[in-house]
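Consider the tokenized backbone below.
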């Protein structure tokens, strides 16, 4: 934690920097989350985020020491809050508790938010029911990383097809909750450019999120043998199409979680933790940023939240791009676009002179490239955004 102390004669104003339940400092700085937490004092209090994924607390998972990692241990370690409202879970042998991983990332960004969960397994009708159930349970924001087969996939039952909008129960449920004032976030998919974004991720009433690497390591070697730099678009982040303007934005992945998700998680970017790669990480991160925005402006509509995130995102390219969308989200710029002003730091009214400003470092806990040319966009005092288009 960093405490900045400003001394004005006998008057002292102290601003405490936010601490995070997981080491997401690189991602937070790149996306303005540090500003939302530090300067605006936001933590998601009063907002409920619904999560749709495979399971929440039924899989057998382990931490980096090989000890059982459960919802109970996550509460004890501060990675999750108590009282997560699990409306429906999934308990088959293939469960991975990916919903718990999404929830850990949300809690790291918005630790004051309430969380709810509904499994996305069981077919499109079941997922649509889950969306509506979460909204009924009070979710202001819903995020999923679940989907089914593209609609033209042969020999697949209708209920296991993710139909293009406005068709199908998933799209119908998204449209229904959107009209009730619920913001909906979904993962763009990790299908590489060969399989473009499809199904409910093309829904205009949802915000679709691609992935940019922002683990705490400056780069990592992916499984294809390619070095991916901090701030670089992940090669697997799915291609969109200009007809739907998808993905809308990109956000960090390569983020830390406490357990070995699916038994095959990597440990290359965040010492002491497992790494969560993919748009399944970037979507909940963005949903959590939206929770901070909604806390600051409770009257903001889903469209206003989406527009604030899209219109203030940073990109190396003008306008929309089928891999980057409108660019990397910037929470501090998005909140300004909503017209919210930061909390003012008290200033003395009758002090003759500024005597000095000191910075006291109390302690910082940091549980801490392919084809075509790279384009670097400077983000002020933040890390550069490196965009690299690739066919791999």
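A designed sequence for it:
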């Amino acid at each position: 934690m960093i405490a900045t102390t400003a001394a004005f004669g006998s008057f002292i104003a102290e601003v405490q920097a936010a601490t995070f339940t997981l080491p997401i400092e690189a991602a937070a700085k790149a996306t303005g989350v540090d500003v939302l937490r530090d300067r605006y004092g936001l933590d998601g209090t009063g907002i409920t985020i619904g999560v749709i994924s495979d399971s929440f607390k039924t899989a057998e998972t382990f931490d980096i020491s090989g000890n059982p990692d459960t919802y109970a241990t996550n509460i004890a370690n501060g990675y999750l809050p108590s009282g997560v409202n699990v409306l429906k879970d999934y308990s088959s042998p293939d469960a991975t508790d990916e919903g718990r991983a999404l929830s850990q990332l949300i809690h790291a960004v918005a630790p004051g938010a309430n969380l709810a969960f509904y499994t996305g397994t069981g077919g499109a009708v079941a997922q649509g029911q889950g969306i509506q159930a979460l909204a009924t349970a009070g979710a202001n924001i819903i995020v999923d990383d679940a989907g089914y087969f593209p609609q033209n996939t042969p020999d697949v039952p209708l209920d296991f097809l993710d139909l293009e909008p406005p068709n199908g129960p998933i799209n119908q449920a998204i449209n229904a909750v959107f009209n009730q004032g619920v913001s909906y976030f979904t993962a763009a998919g990790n299908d590489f450019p060969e399989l473009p974004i499809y199904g409910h991720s093309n829904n205009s009433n949802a915000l679709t999120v691609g992935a940019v690497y922002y683990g705490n390591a400056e780069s990592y070697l992916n499984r294809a043998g390619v070095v991916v730099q901090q701030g670089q678009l992940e090669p697997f982040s799915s291609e969109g199409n200009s007809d739907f303007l998808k993905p809308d934005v990109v956000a960090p992945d390569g983020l830390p979680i406490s357990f070995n998700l699916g038994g095959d998680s990597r440990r290359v970017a965040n010492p002491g933790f497992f790494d969560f790669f993919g748009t399944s990480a970037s979507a909940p991160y963005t949903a959590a940023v939206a929770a901070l925005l909604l806390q600051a402006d409770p009257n903001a509509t889903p469209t206003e939240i989406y527009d604030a995130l899209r219109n203030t995102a940073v990109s190396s390219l003008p306008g929309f791009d089928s891999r980057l969308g409108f660019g990397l989200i910037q929470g501090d710029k998005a909140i300004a676009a909503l017209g919210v002003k930061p909390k003012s730091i008290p200033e003395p009214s009758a002090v003759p002179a500024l005597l000095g400003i000191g910075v006291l470092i109390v302690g910082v806990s940091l549980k801490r490239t392919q084809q075509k040319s790279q384009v670097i966009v400077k983000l002020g005092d933040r890390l550069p955004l490196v965009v690299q288009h690739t066919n791999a």
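The longest strand covers residues 2-8.
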